[in-house]
Specification:
Blueprint lengths: L2 H25 L1 H8 L7 H7 L1 H24 L9 H23 L10 H8 L1 H5 L2 H20 L2 H15 L16 H21 L4 H18 L3 H17 L9 H4 L9
Helix pairs in contact: 1-3, 1-4, 1-8, 4-8, 5-11, 5-12, 6-11, 8-9, 8-11, 9-10, 10-11, 10-12
Length: 271
């Protein structure tokens, strides 16, 4: 079976799983709340829906590539195969992007940004990794399984754009579930922001030779940076989009991704 067909099977399965659960949550909210508790990011049924990409990414890796493929996927989580500055770049970079976006919005009349404190930052990098299902629940699928296969067929910028559109559409049901984290967000800006984040994540993925661990960290910081800088999501989404546009028109995403990002996993860290 070709890797392109593997991708189609993965995407269809992820949508069937997540949207099937979402349909139950939309059509029978009283039963869902009585059975699984009030809607929140930690509600078991919501977590099950969000974890579809990572769980299916692992399952299909085993089916299509066997134990060797699973070892390669696990190697993408190795923290020592990436030089440490990348962890700093991702954390500080997302905080700066959020803060600068908030400052620009403040200059045109929005609320003034700030800093939630070092304790909140520590919690964002530790406790929230477990409490928030998105980064771990999604990235082994989107960036661990799907992105390397897209990079086999397309340039990084096209791969990031395609995955971003799919990723954004996959989130749509959350906007129709009462109490879901996305319910209060502006849908058009969220969709654009998801595509923009996918393009940025693709650049980071390629530069770190396919590190899923760094992708998880980027996802976590994208979700939590605004809470730390007290910046509104809409301002952050605009700033993220501008970064993605700059990357799109630069040469950074036009060259073919290295083999380590596409399929093979090397042991030594890349700069």
């Amino acid at each position: 079976m070709t890797r392109a067909r593997e991708l189609w099977i993965f995407f269809v399965a992820v949508f069937l799983w997540t949207w099937g659960i979402a349909a139950v949550m939309v059509l029978a909210p009283e039963w869902v709340e009585a059975t699984f508790g009030p809607m929140s990011a930690s509600q078991p049924l919501f977590v099950a829906a969000v974890y579809a990409p990572s769980l299916l990414g692992i399952v299909f890796t085993v089916i299509f590539e066997g134990r060797e493929g699973l070892s390669r996927l696990a190697a993408r989580l190795n923290p020592f195969r990436v030089h440490w500055p990348w962890y700093v770049i991702v954390v500080v970079g997302m905080l700066l992007l959020s803060a600068i976006s908030g400052l620009v919005a403040w200059l045109v009349g929005d609320a003034r940004p700030g800093f939630a404190g070092w304790g909140a930052l520590l919690a964002a990098l530790t406790v929230m990794f477990v409490q928030e299902p998105g980064p771990i629940g999604e990235e082994l699928g989107w960036r661990g399984f799907a992105l390397p296969r897209l990079l086999d067929q397309f340039s990084p910028r096209l791969a990031g754009l395609i995955l971003g559109v799919i990723w954004a559409v996959w989130h749509l049901p959350a906007f129709f579930i009462s109490g879901a984290p996305q319910e209060s967000l502006a849908l058009p800006l969220f969709l654009v922001g998801a595509v923009a984040l996918s393009i940025l994540a693709t650049w980071v993925f390629v530069k770190t030779s396919g590190s899923v661990l760094v992708s998880i960290l980027l996802h976590r910081m994208a979700n939590g940076a605004n809470d730390l800088t007290l910046t509104r999501f809409e301002a952050f989404a605009v700033g993220l989009t501008l970064i993605a546009v700059a990357l799109w028109w630069s040469k950074a995403l036009t060259e073919r991704a290295p083999a380590a990002a596409r399929h093979e996993v090397v042991d030594s860290p890349e700069s």
